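Posting for a labmate who doesn't have an account.
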Amino acid sequence: LLLSALSMAAAISGMNAHSIIEVDFQAGIPSGWTQTTLATDGGWNAGNATSLSSSYFAITEHGNFIGTNDDGCNCDKSADVLVSETIDLSSYSGESVRLRFDLFFFEGTYQGATESFEVKASTNGGSTWTSIYTAAGAADWQNAILVDASAYAGNANVNCFRI
């Protein structure tokens, strides 16, 4: 069970809100990002509220974004993982580094399984991951979520986004 939509109007930013990387998903999932999935619909998909909603998972309008919706394909979304490109945070040592995004996530339960949404970070190419944010469900878009990623400042090899 996985019903989530993600919009990143900004992404990783350093002190004074200087953007290190921005992703808006207007052109889909950026090159350099990877995903794994067992789903027959390709996993995380780019679109809008109309194209990514389904009968039992209606997403409210929020421009273009990416989403994964098992109701829409009636397929296995249990292994949908999206990983950002490698991000160089080496020049941000000691600074406040944050991940900012908008999220549409219910945290619904179906047949005893409860969906989850977690952001993890890695500094070793994905061999190990550390959780930096676990979302709580809400009835509508949660805007401008800020996740502290300062622990990764000073590192040249960060994959900051594993969902």
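Reply:
Got it, the structure tokens are right above this. The mean pLDDT is 83.
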